[in-house]
Amino acid sequence: MRIHFIGICGVAMSALATAFHNDSWDVTGSDVGFFPPISDYLKNNKIKFYPGWHVDKMMAGGTPNIIVVGNVAGSTNPEFAFAQENNLHYLSYPELIAEYIVQKNSIVCAGTYGKTSSTALLTQILQKANMDPSYMFGGLSINLKHSAKLKTDKNTWSVLEGDEYKTARWDNRPKFALYSPTHLLLTSASWDHADIYPTEESYFQAFRDLITAIPDDGLIVACTDAKQIKELINTKENKTRTITYSKNESADYRYYDLKQAQDGISFKIRNNDKEYAVQAPVLGEHMAENICGSFALAKEIGVDPNIILSAIAEFKGVKRRLEKRYTNDITIYDDLAHSPTKATATLSTLRTIYPNSKIVAVFEPNTGNRKSQSAPGYANAFKNADEVIIPTLTKVKVNKDDIDPPFDADALQNIISQTHPNALFIPEDKDLIEHIKKTTSKGDVVVFLGSHGFRGMIDSLITSLHPPLPR
């Protein structure tokens, strides 16, 4: 069986490609940009891929049984166009997940943030409990060898990251709408992806629909620290058993007494007058929140708390989630925070851990956070950074009829400068690297924030620093 991935260097697409390779499929893929860590992941797993879009290479091994079309492929993509013109079987990757990974007990982790780490942790917990789930999450786990696994006849559970972004260019349904969830972990809801959801109401409606889709005999575990979540789960349409978690005493599962250090966090969880001591080698209050939610869901489906705590103690997180890439005179972190809200959370964590250090943030937003509607969210978002650097932003396709095209780096620098005294735009990558080297000193912290790969800048910066230490 052959399967081809158009846009294989996306985090989810590369994970799925490897899952099919591990299931003995003949896998090929194409893309226009290959950067670590995804390019290394594909090479290490012996996945065949090539740069650019070439129909002859796609068809070289015979007609693929399935062609998976990533969002990078527009209507003019020659491989996608060929598949359409010749009636070849093509799917979006959420459709592929629905067919090859979703099980009858379908756990979906959804929310504006926290869903990747929560999915990875729940997968690790269920594996430790010998439940052998199929799974998929959009990141590279530091613990697990792979980020996706196909379903088998031997297991009945699946754990999936439920993204609210649209399924495909031709399918505006949120991805999580395809995963038939029976169990929902709802981490957060804060307006995002303004390119898809032009109003807050349209964004929250997607989550209302998700909650309504959970069967009456299913389970919802929701973080009620945010007002929006409380409103979503308290709608009359929600008839499913609902468990709450929060740092507030009113929650069914409460986390508290959080202690943070450079090597991890410790805190306590209370449920029904029982107290559980938690330790994990990850950073940030947001991770304590994710861990509490994962603990609650796993316990509610019958996993022994001791097994859960053991899995948590081993959980090192997901790459590009406050991942420490380098430490010597300066420390370099890489984080996927591609919105002002996520950047604020990451910088708050770093300021807690490094209260007296200079913190330099290199920030690139995703497309949705380059719209005029998102501009107010940048106010004071970088207050915990001493300097904010904007690189040249990744080019995005712009619809000629778009009345609100994405703003460029100059405009972003101007927006951030309204509430931050030291925001810079440095167009050339090499100049950005040199600026960091010249203006940082012992004890300083540099964090790269964004969902794109920064065109290899992080690795170039690390290579140029001596002596480089192991990660």
Structure description:
By secondary structure, the protein is an alpha/beta fold. The chain folds into 3 domains: 92 residues, NAD(P)-binding Rossmann-like Domain (Rossmann fold, 3-Layer(aba) Sandwich), CATH 3.40.50; 214 residues, 3-Layer(aba) Sandwich (UDP-N-acetylmuramoyl-L-alanine:D-glutamate ligase); 142 residues, Protein-Tyrosine Phosphatase, Chain A, CATH 3.90.190. The protein has 14 helices and 23 strands. The strands form 4 sheets. A 10-stranded mixed β-sheet has the order 8-7-9-6-12-13-14-15-16-17, sandwiched between helices. The longest helix is centred in the middle third of the chain and has 16 residues. The radius of gyration is 22 Å and the shape is globular. The model has no long low-confidence stretch (mean pLDDT 92). GO terms for molecular function: acid-amino acid ligase activity; ATP binding. This is UDP-N-acetylmuramate:L-alanyl-gamma-D-glutamyl-meso-diaminopimelate ligase.
